[in-house]
Structures are given as structure tokens and as C-alpha cells.
Design brief:
Helix content: 10-25%
CATH class of the domain at 1-105: Mainly Beta
Radius of gyration: 31 Å
Number of strands: 19
Length: about 270
């Protein structure tokens, strides 16, 4: 989408520099002048108008709409308000990318829609400072996603679906590190993970298609220290491990009601 953004910025800068000094072809102007002699001023009818650029002005002669085809194959249309401020830009690149942006009265882009030549498409919402805050996109590979950003345009929440059947949501801290992740996969497994500030998974919970459910706690080095779960057969257990991940103490109950409290030495 960067190419579309570049094209939009190019059109915006062009409008600001030239103040929409776009004129229709001399032949069209001549035709308008001739028709004006026999019709009310401002009325004209054409079957076909061919030109490289055109503009539309209001009753006071202020440019309000302009279109231009650029030699390299790009093309764009811009809309201005009564104060001459840019409010809408539609652009198409020669490579097939296309986009449209709506701007507020301060000429800050607030809503952008883009379709890229590679098959992806996106909608971006920006705040009053022109910072992107929400992006929704579909991708050529069949995936789709939504991203929420903070006032500094850092990703804070991201939700996505993938063509392989997986779906996940991730939460990021202000440093851009994932802190919570939730996911489902096509085989029927679901999981939740909590990460510390160093990106190490500290708490993990999951359910499995065979009926098993597990939850584990890890230390700051990522080593599993506590593991609790239920089996598909009705067993339930908890195990505590030492810093080398060796199981030392266990507690559980089997499906037949048997209770066990095993311990293991450090060997």
C-alpha cells in the first residue's frame, strides 16, 4: 500500500504547489466559447471530451474537482472544499494499485481504502492527528486481519485468520512486545499464552481435540515448573518440577477415584 500512499502524497503536493492550475484542452475551451454564444452562459453539451486533465470550478471560479493522467500511467482525481483544502483523493498506479483517501478540514487523512495489484485490500482509519489507529485488511493468500494502534502508531492489538484454518489474537505492550496470545487451529486445539516483558511465555493454557486440557507455569528462563491437566479418560493431575524441569512432586486423582501423591528424588 506504500505505493498508493506515495501516489496520494504526490497528488496532494501537486495540488498545493500548483493550486489546481489544471486546464482543459484548448479545443474544448474553444467549443465552450462558441456554444456560449447561442446558449445561456455556462451551459454546454458534448458527446465526448478527451483530455489529459480537467477541473471543475464553483460559481465563484474556485477549483473544486480536478483529474489528471500522468505520463507514467498513474492517474488521480482530487476534491477540494470551498476553502480550497484537499478533502478527497482517488489515485491509481500504473502497476494496478488503487486507493482513495478522505481528509478532514485540516487536510489530515482520516480514512483510506486501498486495493493492491497483488490481490490484498485494506481500510485504514486515522485520528485527528493523521495517525493510523485501526487497519482492516484481506490478503492475497486468503488471510484477513485487523490491527489496533496507539497514538504513536504502535501496534497494540492484532487479530488474524489464516488460510490454514488458524485464528489468533495478540496483545502488545507499549514496547511492541507480545504479552498475551489467544489462538485456535483447524484441528480443534485452542490455547492462551501470557508472556513477560522479555517475550518468554510464562503461563500457557490449552484444550485439545481429544478432550485433554492442560495448563503450565514457567519461570523467567522459560522452564516449566508447574503443570496441571485433565486427560480424555477422566484423570486429573498436577506436577511440580525443579529448575532443571525434573518432576519432583505430583498430586492427582484417576478416573476410578484413586488418589495419588507421588514424589521423586532429584536423580
Amino acid at each position: 500500500m506504500d505505493t498508493i500512499n506515495d501516489q496520494i502524497r504526490e497528488l496532494q503536493n501537486s495540488v498545493r504547489r500548483q493550486r489546481l492550475a489544471i486546464v482543459v484542452l484548448a479545443g474544448v475551451l474553444t467549443s465552450v466559447a462558441l456554444i456560449g454564444a447561442v446558449r445561456p452562459v455556462g451551459d454546454a453539451t458534448f458527446d465526448t471530451v478527451t483530455c489529459k486533465a480537467w477541473k471543475v470550478v464553483d460559481k465563484d471560479g474556485n477549483p473544486r474537482i480536478a483529474a489528471r493522467a500522468i505520463e507514467d500511467g498513474d492517474a488521480g482525481v482530487t476534491w477540494l472544499d470551498r476553502e480550497g483544502k484537499l478533502r478527497i483523493v482517488a489515485a491509481m498506479k500504473a502497476n494496478g494499485d488503487a486507493g482513495m483517501t478522505w481528509l478532514d478540514q485540516d487536510e489530515k487523512g482520516r480514512l483510506r481504502v486501498a486495493a493492491d495489484a497483488d490481490g490484498s485490500a485494506a481500510v485504514t482509519w486515522a485520528d485527528r492527528n493523521g495517525k493510523s489507529r485501526l487497519v482492516a485488511a484481506t490478503f492475497a493468500n486468503g488471510g484477513a486481519g485487523v490491527t489496533w494502534l496507539d497514538p504513536n502508531e504502535k501496534t497494540r492489538i492484532e487479530a488474524a485468520t489464516n488460510p490454514n484454518g488458524k485464528a489468533d489474537v495478540r496483545w502488545f505492550d507499549s514496547d511492541g512486545k507480545v504479552r498475551i496470545g489467544v489462538a485456535t487451529i483447524s484441528e480443534g486445539m485452542a490455547s492462551v499464552a501470557w508472556f513477560d516483558k522479555d517475550g518468554i511465555g510464562r503461563i500457557l493454557a490449552s484444550t485439545h481435540p481429544d478432550g485433554q486440557a492442560r495448563m503450565s507455569w514457567r519461570d523467567k528462563d522459560g522452564k516449566e515448573r508447574i503443570n496441571a491437566g485433565t486427560s480424555p479418560f477422566g484423570d486429573a493431575s498436577v506436577w511440580w518440577s525443579d529448575k532443571d524441569e525434573k518432576e519432583r512432586i505430583g498430586a492427582g486423582v484417576s478416573s476410578d477415584g484413586t488418589v495419588f501423591l507421588p514424589t521423586k528424588d532429584e536423580k
